Amino acid sequence: MAKKTKVPKYSLHKPSGQACVQIRGKITYLGKYDSPESRVRYEQLLAKLQRDAETKPEAAALTIGALAVMYVGHCREFYRKNGKVTSEVGCVQQALKPLIKLYSSTLASQFSPLCLKRVRDEMIRKNWVRTSINRHIFRIRKMFKWALSVEALTSPDVLEMLRAVDGLQKNRSDAAESKPVRAVKRAVVEAVESHISPVLWAMIRLQLLTGMRPGEVRLMKLKDIDRSGEIWEYRPSEHKLEHKGIERVIFIGAEGQKALLPYLKADPERYLFETRSGRPFAKDGYCREIARACERAKVDHWSPNQLRHTAATDIRKQFGLEASRVILGHSSAETTLVYAERDQETAKAVIRQIG
Predict the structure, then answer these.
(1) pLDDT of amino acid 2
(2) What is the predicted pLDDT for the residue at 178?
(3) pLDDT higher than threshold 50 for residue 306
(4) What residues are paired with 63 via a beta bridge?
(5) In this predicted model, which residue has the larger pLDDT, 101 or 43?
(6) What's the CA dihedral at 342, 318, 203, 227 to 10 degrees?
(7) What is residue 55's three-state secondary structure?
């Protein structure tokens, strides 16, 4: 390694069973411990660490534009799931666009809170919603934090000053407010049944019965479903908290099983719900087909995300807030394994009654 840097160790993260490596105080998960894929990922990170050490520009001459290029490259390596770049990379690139537009040639060491506020004003001018603006400003600060960790910035003063810029508060700025995702009435959902394909209707039914996310229903595979018990257990191979080592279990009762039966394939690796081309429905494609069905049924448009809210609302009314939490998988990273078994039994009992 350059400058005789100590080689970061390939390690086991015991709670999740994943391999991990700690580089400059940050832990990166590599996949299943001792798997070939995790070893390859480890070697890739070491190679990148070597390249960064050899090509890093002098901190005093580093511009915002050059820093942004370096950071996006880091994000493409860091934000990965199952070997694929996640959507966070696109979010980072979106956050950096107004920054680069205004300050591409500015030295990173001279970037100030007033500069950051001007970038934020540009986001407001573009009519981005307040919550998105706050997240994007956080991403920009995170870029400077990363720069400090890899010694692209020699002083922590810039980062400390940028932290003084508070997030925009609701109804206290010129930023647009986002509209909350609301539940859709079941009668409105049922109105599209005769205007949509059977496969899409099965997906809709499953979301209503289980409260799963659109991505979880779109990417279902037979290999991920345990059908040995009265209540089936679906463990998505990809889910929101996978990178934190938190298991996601979705329980499927009798009615959900009926909806699934026509789509169970002999090949456990194939997606259960596929388009004519044999590929899973894309996020936009799923939304688009529902929108078209709403137009044909002459009802207000609704989205797949609203189905999860409908399921949550109904479960909360009938079984209480705790039941809604465990069915939808709303658990924080601090939730201990002591409660995991209790939560699953609660979820099974609710799903058994729902169907």
Answers:
(1) 40
(2) 85
(3) yes
(4) 107
(5) 101
(6) 40
(7) helix
Considering the segment(s) 186-354 as one domain, its CATH architecture is Orthogonal Bundle (1.10)
* Residue 331 · residue 246 · CB < 8 Å: yes
114-149 as b/e, with b when 16 or more CB fall inside 10 Å? ebbeebbbbbbeeebbbebbbebbebbbebbebbbe
When pLDDT is cut at 50, 70 and 90, the band that residue 25 belongs to is low
Q: What is the dihedral of CA 207, 213, 217, 220, to 10 degrees?
A: -140
The SS3 of residue 218 is helix
| Cα→Cα distances 87→90, 100, 212, 310, Å | 5, 20, 19, 26
Which helix (H) or strand (E) segment holds residue 12: the answer is strand 10-13
Summarised one tens digit per residue, pLDDT across range 134-178 is 999 999 999 999 998 887 776 788 999 999 999 999 989 999 998
**Res 342: pLDDT:** 47
Contact (Cβ atoms closer than 8 angstroms) between residue 348 and residue 210: no
Residues β-bridged to residue 234: 225, 250
Question: Alpha-carbon distance 116 to 284, whole Å?
Answer: 33
pLDDT tens, residue by residue, 139-148: 999 999 999 8
How would you class 23 by CB atoms within 10 Å of its CB: exposed for 0-12, middle for 13-18, buried for 19 or more? middle
Do 195 and 296 meet the contact criterion of CB atoms below 8 Å apart?
A: yes
Domain boundaries, the chain: 2-162, 186-354
N residues, the chain: 355
Nearest-CA neighbor of 347 among 250, 259, 257, 213?
250
